[in-house]
Amino acid sequence: MHCLLQAWEDAGLSLSTSSNEACKLFDATLSQYVTWRNDKTLGGIEGCLARLHEADPTFVMGHVMANGLELIGTGRSIFLDKELDRAVKNMVKLAKTQLLTEREQLHVSAVDLFAKGCLPEASEQWEQILQDHPLDLLALKFAHDTYFYLGFSAQMRDSVARVLPYWNPSIPFSKKQYLKLIVKTVSEEIQASLCHPLVSKWLDSFVSEPETVLSLGRLTQPLPDFYKGLYALNHCSLCGTSTSAQVLPSAGENSTCVEKKQTWALAVDRKDAWSVHTIAHVHEMKAEIEKGLKFMQKTENEWKDCDMLTCHIFWHWALYFIEKGEYEAALNLYDDYIAKYAFSSGTLLDIVDNSSLLYRFQMEGMNIEERWKKLLQITKSHVKDHVLIFNDLHILMSSLGANDQESTHQLLTTLQEVSKTPGSNHQYGLGQTLGLHLCQALIEIEDKNYSKAVDLLYPVRYQIFQIGGSNAQRDIFNQMLIHAALNSKSDHHQKLARCLLIERDAFKPNSPLTQRLMQKASAVHCM
């Protein structure tokens, strides 16, 4: 039997356990985490973690994996969940009784910091690991996800750029796993990006000669053009420019480059849900509604079993229908898939997708009160969590939509309480500077105080990225501001609505949703 314990050792990623079975299950869990898929043949992540604990109950990295995955799901807090609090404390205590490697000690510290809400500090610990151990996929993925929650797009870009040259197919992951790292590098941050023309050439070369990817990883050799192009693309995705750029194409042209790359990724692995997800973002940002719908229909059978991301991909599918104005089709997707996945999984990603979609229906003038009431059944238990401000806002949407004053009051009062003395908890501090501000804007909209909502939203519109999430997810706040400005009785706000719509049309031409809003603006003499 292949000794995974030795394989991890050979990769410079020693695991402090004598159990090869524990290493095998650690590897299996990591693979499922990275691919967004519970592998039923392995018993899924939950089954693997249970057997991992049985194989070696004192395996510290097993505890790091279990606690880290629970925390990264953002559905539980050590401040409210005694079981989770005990699990994290037990991990820290266990680590002190063993002679661990520095890498393992940093993992323990990072998970402990994350649990306490110190997200930037946790990511720093994972980055410290990656400086010495660039092949540590768990550190890379935990850091990447944490940056996503923080809205730190530059760090998302750079965390991958720094380690990518070290990767090659000889490490203790399969060639497919190596390729998955490559194709996942540019995530949602491709949106709203401008790209140097040379990037297109580099990516075209990569797509036509995919085997060049497999030569990456040896620092003693010249860096391949693909890696240069990939880094430039990441760089441009953050800045909207490039230091060497003389002529910049439109964001749509750049997204076409990325679409080619992700299409190649799907040729490597047709069930790579992350590449499906990325292409969904491309079509959304370019307002390519028909292409997006056809793509979803064509690939549905390939990603439908990728359970950790399936609900979110259906959410993207529904966005196309809303954009197109086909609300019944979007509602059918919501009722048949999106709502059912949220109630089945109970994960916060699925829950916030439900809130986000229902709020968009509401802005389009649809009566979805009963759906709000049903959703409240699973959001109600999270009103006091305050793990992420992003989550809090979407949970508040559900309590307001369901007209549940008690849940709304509990969320606001507990958020106010923790925000008064945030300490080192990053999200509590964000609640003080931005979160409560946005919560109040939601309340003003619900109370039809549109002028107040505009006055709250407009000054912070360029700060909203701090709540994390993708551009597509945060676009709900852009739409919220436009609707509030359109409905405000203030002439100034109605003129602002005109400016915001012109801006939106310039960035996302040919958007049916924008056109509908422009028609509404014309009706109230804004345009």
From TrEMBL:
CDD domains: StaR_like
Xref: SUPFAM superfamilies: TPR-like
Keyword annotations from UniProtKB, A to Z: Repeat, TPR repeat
Highest taxon in the source lineage: Eukaryota
TM region(s), chain numbering: none
Keyword Transcription attached: no
UniProt record similarity statement: Belongs to the TTC38 family.
PANTHER family, per database record: TETRATRICOPEPTIDE REPEAT PROTEIN 38 (PTHR16263:SF4)
Name of this chain's protein: Tetratricopeptide repeat protein 38
Protein's organism: Geotrypetes seraphini
Gene: TTC38
